[in-house]
Every structure is written in structure tokens, then in C-alpha cells.
Amino acid sequence: MAIKTTTAQGGTIGIIEVKGSLVGGEETDELRVAVTDFIEQGNKKLVIDLSKVTYLNSTAIGVLVSAHTTYSRNKGAVKLCGINKNINNIFVITKLTMVFDVCETREDALKAFTEESLTNQKVN
User: Fold this and answer.
1) How many structural domains comprise the chain?
2) pTM of the prediction?
3) Which residues of the chain have pLDDT under 70?
């Protein structure tokens, strides 16, 4: 498994792209470290792209929930994107679709963050 990190929109949105199986061990540690790095940089918006993930287990779900919790505590947000049908079924069964904001594509997730920022500016 490989993890690639990038930023978008002038560095305001962190992006983590995960490839392969996410089943514990090194791969989940890599994801955890990537999330921590973004938090330590003061990042408040994170997209985790799972479009190239073939399988994930409860350990991986724990890392995703931990990322969501950490960002929420820091007044930030995590959006997941690119979830395949099998992984989506896991999220529906475990009711994680009620916890995570899941977008179809990375572009949709970035757009959702942009629209939220514009809405927040209008309210303030």
C-alpha cells in the first residue's frame, strides 16, 4: 500500500490518497502519520481519497474515525471520497455514513469545502 499526500487551494486543503489494501500494520500507521502531519501543520480541511483502496478492515476504520475525531476537536473537517461499492456497504452497515461526509469524487469533496467556506463567509 502507498500513501500520497498533497494540498489543494493554496495549501488550505490537505489531501491523502491511499492505494491498495488498508488492513492494519504499516499501511494504517502511514495513514495515521499523514493525518497527524496535516494536523500539526494547522490544517483544518482534509480529504481522504479512497478511490484506489481495494479493501479495508476494522483497524482502518478506526484510523479514519480517529482522523475525523481529531479534526473535529480542532474545529476542522474530514471528507472521504472515491469509496467503492464494497467499502460503501461497510460504511452503511456500520452507520459511518452518518459520521463522515462522503463525496463521490475528489473534485466533489474540494468543491464541498469551497462551498462551505463561502456559506460561512456569508453568515459571518
Assistant:
1) 1
2) 0.90
3) 1, 117-124
